[in-house]
What does this fold into?
Amino acid sequence: MLSVLIIAGSDSSAGAGIQADLKTCAALDVYAMTAITALTAQNTMGVTAIHEVPADFVAAQIDTVVTDIRPDAVKTGMLANAAIIDVVAAKITEHALPHVVVDPVMVAKSGDRLLLEDAVRALRELLFPLADVLTPNIPEAEDLLGHPVRTDEEVREAARELQSLGPRNVVMKGGHREGDAAIDILFDGRDFHDFSTPRIRTTSRHGTGCTFASAIAAFLARQETVPEAVKHAKEYLTEALRRAEPIGHGHGPVHHFWDLYPD
It folds into this structure.
């Protein structure tokens, strides 16, 4: 059976993080393993506490999993601090792990910061060069690059700048932009590929970034090309947003298992 290794933080409300990643992979018929980097106390309204896992224990989780079950792809999410980013990059290199999808998780949907400031440099310098696909949203791109990203041309220029840091492909997510269409832009170092779907107006947006990146990893594990994986991941997420039902009092989760249930 095809498999994906998820390296990310836990969300106690199960809408984002490891829990969303597991649901996504299960829905897409790919076996998911995990290396947990942090525990969060959070719900649909916000994050109240974060407990970071020691970096050596993150390394132990990765070593133990991959020496038994070889992953066909890897997805990283919340990495919390520079020490964890260091060991994750080292282990990806040591084990020559394939199809690495990096979701540069820095801020939760509620606005709570999930990546410490001193870790941003480590993320850029150590992990980006190992990424087959980088999946920033607009606020993350602005944080990483240190300047606003607003217009269509600025989005494309930001993709070029981020791709120059090492990722082979960059997907600029369009969820934070205005308009009736949600347009994700993939840059492969040479060409741009636009993926457009109707924008879903919903408060159930918790975990969309985690879900999208995990779906890309799952489709890459299934030996799809990067453009194919991005296209199918976007289609899966769009329907998960459309089928979501209100849960909680804030930003509820998407419906990961929409394909298993009738309307």
